[in-house]
Amino acid sequence: MKYCAEQRLAKKSLNINPIQRGGILTPEAKVALHEFEDGYSVCDYCEGRLDKINKPPIHEFLEEFSKFINVDIVRPTHGAREGKFIVIHSLCEEGDKIVVDGNAHYTTYVAAERNKTDTIVVPHSGYPNYEIKVEKWKETLDNVLDKYDNVKLAILTHVDGNYGNLTDAKKIGKICRRKGIPLLLNCAYTMGRMPINAKKLKADFVVGSGHKSMAASGPIGILGLSEEWEDEILRKSKKYPNKEIELLGCTSRGAPIVTLMASFPHVKERVKNWDQEVKKTRYFVKEMEKIEGIKQLGIKPKMHDLVNFETPIFEKISKKHPKKGYFLYHELKKRNITGVKPGYTKTLKCSVYRMDKEQIDYIINSFREIVDAGIGI
Ligand SMILES: Cc1ncc(COP(=O)(O)O)c(C=O)c1O
C-alpha cells in the first residue's frame, strides 16, 4: 500500500492551504514524534489519568497552557470538534437549543446533531463581507430567549474557516453573559496563531486545534474551561472515580500530544508576532487585488491570515484552457506551490502564514504570470 509518503517527502512545496499552514511541525516536534511513535508511548509512567502524567511532563504543560490562554482548567482532546462535542454533551439534553454563528464550521453542527440538539443560526451579513455583527447576535439571542426556555449554550467561531473573519468575541461574550447563556469560543483558527485570553473575551469554554494552529501533528485539541464548569464537564466515573467520563478516561495517548508539547515554546513566541502576520496578509491581499479579476471576500482590512478571493478571472481562463478547471492547480504545481483545490477556480482560499517576503512575492508573481498567460490563450 502506498501512503503518498513519496509525495510528502518530495521537495517541500510552498503550501498555501490555510488549514495546513498553522500545523507545520517545528524541528523539536519532529524529534518528539519519532521518540514517541509507539502506541501508548506517553503511558510508561501512568499516574491514573493523562493530564496527571509527569513523565513526559503533560501535567506541567497543561498548567502552562492554561496560563497561555487564561483559563482555569485545560484538558487535551483529539481536536476542536471533540471539545465542542464534550461541552454540548455535558450541558444539553435532547431538543435543547444552541445559538451558533452563520459562519460556524460543519463540526459545530455535527457535534450538535450527535447530541440531538437544535442549532439556531445568527445570520451573517451576506456577500461580500459575510460578517457576524454584534447587533444581529443580540437580536437573534433575544428572539430565541423569548421563544424558548431551553437555550443552553452559544457557540461562536472566533475566526471562521471560509472567510477568515475575526468576530468581536468580547462584545458577544458580554451579551451572552448578561443573558446567562454560557459561551463556547471556537478558536481552531486562532489559538496558537494569535494571543487568546479567554477570561477577557468572557468565554466560559474555548476549544483549539493543535493540527490546525499549534504546530502539532494531531489529531490533538485543547479544551479550556472556567472552574465554575469543572463539576459538570469533568464529572467522574462512579466505577472509576479517577476517570473523567467525557474524556473517556484519557484522550491523546501518544505522539500527537507530545508534538503539541514540543512545539509549545515556539507557539508561545509566535503569537507575539501576530501583528506582523496580519501586516503580511494585508500586503498579500493588496498585491493580489492588483491583478484584474481577483477580489478579497470577507471583512476588510484583514485581521487574520486566512484569505478567500473571488476569482472570476480563473473561471474565465478555465473555459478556454485545455486542462479546464484543473489548469490553476497544474500551473501552481509547476511552480512548486500547492494547497489549492484541484478543479476549482471560482474562489481561492489561501494563506501566507509564516512565509517570508520573498516567498510571498514569489506566490504573487506566480498568480500574475498564470493570469497573464491564461488571458493570452
Ligand atoms: C473554524 C473551524 N473549527 C473547527 C475545525 C475543526 O478542527 P478539528 O480538526 O481540530 O476538529 C475547523 C477545521 O477546518 C475549522 O475551520
Give a structural overview.
- Homodimer. Interacts with SepRS.
- One of its GO terms (molecular function) is Sep-tRNA:Cys-tRNA synthase activity.
- Keywords: Protein biosynthesis, Pyridoxal phosphate, Transferase.
- Its EC number is 2.5.1.73.
- The chain has 377 residues and is an alpha/beta fold.
- The chain has 15 helices and twelve strands.
- It folds into two domains: 122 residues, Aspartate Aminotransferase, domain 1 (Alpha-Beta Complex); 244 residues, Aspartate Aminotransferase, domain 2.
- The radius of gyration is 22 Å and the shape is globular.
- The mean pLDDT is 96.
- The structure holds pyridoxal-5'-phosphate (PLP).
- The site of pyridoxal-5'-phosphate (PLP) has 15 residues, from helix 5.
Short overview:
Converts O-phospho-L-seryl-tRNA(Cys) (Sep-tRNA(Cys)) to L-cysteinyl-tRNA(Cys) (Cys-tRNA(Cys)). It holds the Pfam family SepSecS. This protein is α/β, with parallel strands linked by helices.
Defining key terms:
377 residues, alpha/beta, Aspartate Aminotransferase, domain 1, Aspartate Aminotransferase, domain 2, 2 domains, seven-stranded mixed sheet, three-stranded antiparallel sheet, 15 helices, 12 strands, globular, binds pyridoxal-5'-phosphate, Sep-tRNA:Cys-tRNA synthase activity, transferase, protein biosynthesis
